[in-house]
Specification:
Layout (H helix, E strand, L loop, with lengths): L15 H25 L4 H28 L2 H9 L1
Helix pairs in contact: 1-2
Amino acid sequence: MQVRFASHTGADVPAPPTALQHIHEQLLAQQQRWADQLARDPAAFAQLEPLVHQAFQQMADRLVASLLAHAAQQQALQQQAQKK
């Protein structure tokens, strides 16, 4: 079974270690942008905080999708699905 993000034509969901690596890279880049924004305008914190929470939610969603896609490839899950 092939699992994709967003739609049948979306990007493939990567394996958990790859997903974590992508999340780590994204987080490093995003952290620098957040820090730069706060350095330029400390008052922007009120607008920035919900964006940080949203970014972490999206990263968590990507990891969960990766874990589910990985689990779906396991024979035990496929056998359980066939029983129902």
